[in-house]
Amino acid sequence: MGRGLGLHQAAEWLDEFEQVVQESDGPIGKGTVFRYTLKGDRSALIENVAWEPGRRVAWDGPPLPSRIGGARPRGSLEVTELAAGRTRFVSRYEPELSGLLVLLRPTLTRWVRKQRTADTQHLKQMLETAQRDVSE
Predict the structure, then answer these.
(1) Sequence-distant (≥ 6) Cβ neighbours of residue 47 within 8 angstroms
(2) What pLDDT was estimated at residue 136?
């Protein structure tokens, strides 16, 4: 359980991410800083603000600027084992928008919801495959 949950693995299951590289020294934990690169060659820093390996990660970072505003990446992922073979996955994406992006909030909210639903299905497949591999 929890494989793929860390920010350092986000490019494996978040479609718009091309790469995530650890920028700070030391083991991954609370306070670890990563540089993420999105498709279209935009990048920014993001920090683990909460870290419980395999169970919970939360992040925050400075706004990623665009031509019409910015979006501060904030959110969390949490995995809870409910029973044998049943797991709850809760994702919260709470970007803080600025500039004209504020006016696009309804459209961006729909896009994020649709994209994250597809990304979550991809992550679910990854986790289930990893679980089967461990069981065999």
Answers:
(1) 31, 32, 33, 34, 59, 60, 61
(2) 67
Distance (Å, whole) CA 37 – CA 43:
4
Among 44-58, 70-84, 120-134, the range scoring the smallest mean pLDDT is 120-134
CB 75, CB 91: distance < 8 Å: yes
Whether residue 74 contacts residue 60, with contact meaning beta carbons closer than 8 Å, is answered with yes
Place of tokens 């896009």: 111
Q: Write the DSSP symbol of residue 131.
A: H
The enclosing H or E element of 130 equals: helix 105-135
pTM score of the predicted model: 0.81
Position 1 scores a pLDDT of 38
Q: CATH number of the domain that 109 lies in? A: 3.30.530.20
Q: Is residue 2 part of a domain?
A: no
31: domain range?
7-135
User: How far is it, in rounded angstroms, from Cα 130 to Cα 124?
Assistant: 10
Do the domain assignments include residue 1?
Answer: no
Look at the chain and report how many structural domains it folds into.
1
Q: Please report where in the chains the tokens 């990446």 appear, as a residue.
A: 73
